[in-house]
Amino acid sequence: MARRSKIKTEVPAKIREEFEAQLVAGGFSDYLGLTDWLNERLKAEGLDVTVSVMATNRYGKSFQEEFERDMAEANQTYHIAKIAMANNEDTEGVVRDATIRTLQTRLLRLSSTLRQAEEAGDDPHKLAETTAKIAKALADLGRVDIASQKYKAELEEAVYKARMDVIKRLRDFIADQFPDMKKAFAVVLKPFAELLTNG
User: Fold this and answer.
1) What is the DSSP string of 63-125?
2) Range(s) of the domain holding residue 56
3) Is 93 part of a structural domain of the chain?
4) pTM above 0.85, yes or no
5) What is the DSSP letter of 11?
6) Phi and psi (nearest 5°) for 15?
């Protein structure tokens, strides 16, 4: 059976969040000082819980990995958006796709954490309920992804049709108003039509 963190199981969520803020603020160092701070904080709340330096170190390292992974994901999404904007791409679509991928990764990681919790002997009913919620969330993300791709394809098709319509109207206008210039304008319009057909 996997060993459970005392900080996760016995330290109240509010104090645990304060401790995590201390971890980040201190650059994930000085675990002796952090242990003293946490034990004093627990004592001030009237709780009969003490945490060892080894427990704070173990929890801190695990939290640091999660924190750095989350920051890397946020940074990746930022850079994807920045590149998309520089390339004049569909920034909303690019960021949406990156966000979907990030959420899928987090949900899969949560699923892995649930397996570990199950091995540690947590309540199977709560685990089953949470697993069902994760499965639903993944399915919803899949539907959003499919809808997003469909919307993008439909938008591209609509833009293409609108551009072709403009070229056809211009061609017809020229043929009607300037019949003598029809061949010259056809030569001018040809590259635009080819560009639209190929792009």
Assistant:
1) HHHHHHHHHHHHHHHHHHHHHHHHTT--HHHHHHHHHHHHHHHHHHHHHHHHHHHHHTT--HH
2) 1-76
3) no
4) no
5) S
6) -70, -35
